[in-house]
Amino acid sequence: MTPLLEVEGVDAHHGDLQALFGVSLAVEEGRTVAVIGANGAGKSTLLAVVAGALPATSGTVRFAGADVAGVPGHRRVDEGITLVPEGRRLFPSLSVEENLLVGAFRNRPGPWTLERVYDLFPLLRPLAARAAGTLSGGEQQAVAIGRGLMSNPRLLLLDEVSLGLAPLVVQQLYAALGTIVESGCTVVVVEQDVGQALGVADQVWCLLEGRVSLSGVPADLEAEAVTRAYFGVLADRPGEGSSAQPADVSLAAAAAILPGTAVVDDAVDAGTTADGPVGTVPGVAGASGSAAGADAGQG
Ligand SMILES: Nc1ncnc2c1ncn2[C@@H]1O[C@H](COP(=O)(O)OP(=O)(O)OP(=O)(O)O)[C@@H](O)[C@H]1O
Ligand SMILES: [Mg+2]
Prior knowledge:
Layout (H helix, E strand, L loop, with lengths): L4 E10 L2 E11 L4 E5 L6 H9 L6 E6 L2 E2 L5 H7 L1 E4 L11 H8 L10 H7 L16 H13 L5 E5 L7 H16 L3 E6 L2 H7 L2 E6 L2 E6 L6 H9 L31 H7 L19 H9 L2
Helix pairs in contact: 3-5, 5-6, 8-10
Bound molecules: adenosine-5'-triphosphate (ATP) and magnesium ion.
């Protein structure tokens, strides 16, 4: 079966700065895939390339088997690729409902309507007439996801769903993902909170300094392998640094440390700020993140 999304050997630049180096990944239709990685790893850049907001400087992006190079972002929305960007980017003076309707302007057929979005996020119903700029962060994130759904995507790209939100809100947003996937939508979620990502994803890809440092099925991933891929210590042996190939992650065990329930609390306890991790992989409760991070610094 052809994957819905195939990214092959993609390089991408912001001006002179190269942000992606030969990134390859594949996403099968109907799956939920997480892309994790520290600040500046290239996660948003990867989503921008897939959504057509930034051209790849080399490599190929195929959607439903077709090369989408040269297809501008709005045409990709027509074809079913929708990005819910980092920072939500709502129209603050427009109402919640108007923001949702903006998502439907390409008129792609599909299951998502205002009613279904309100069913998915009942908290938005009484806020329909409120200016989006007056909402809480969690409410705004729900509007942003709802607006994305109104375009009836085949592939929904969610950038930093949980960043800066309270644990309960994050739980509610992630609970909605199940319904979204059941509607037939394929989801790629970018997360700094690894526990959260591994809890929902069928497959996870870790980026490190613009390269894929690890990929695998969450249940097969060892905490230490994740920590290394996240921080850049792919092997204890000298000479195997951060530009190594994806680590072999077919290691058993470790499932116990993965999806925590209070991941955001863990992250806060571990010294994580809204700006990102400080030495510990956010959401990997009980992992030796700090120690591994310190080891990384010492080679
Ligand atoms: N518009 C831009 N102009 C110049 N450099 C950029 C731009 N956007 C990103 N970069 C750089 O590209 C690299 C990758 O950034 P990117 O935003 O993709 O990372 P990220 O993994 O999404 O990080 P974060 O978790 O902080 O959102 C970083 O070095 C960043 O500084
Ligand atoms: Mg980002």
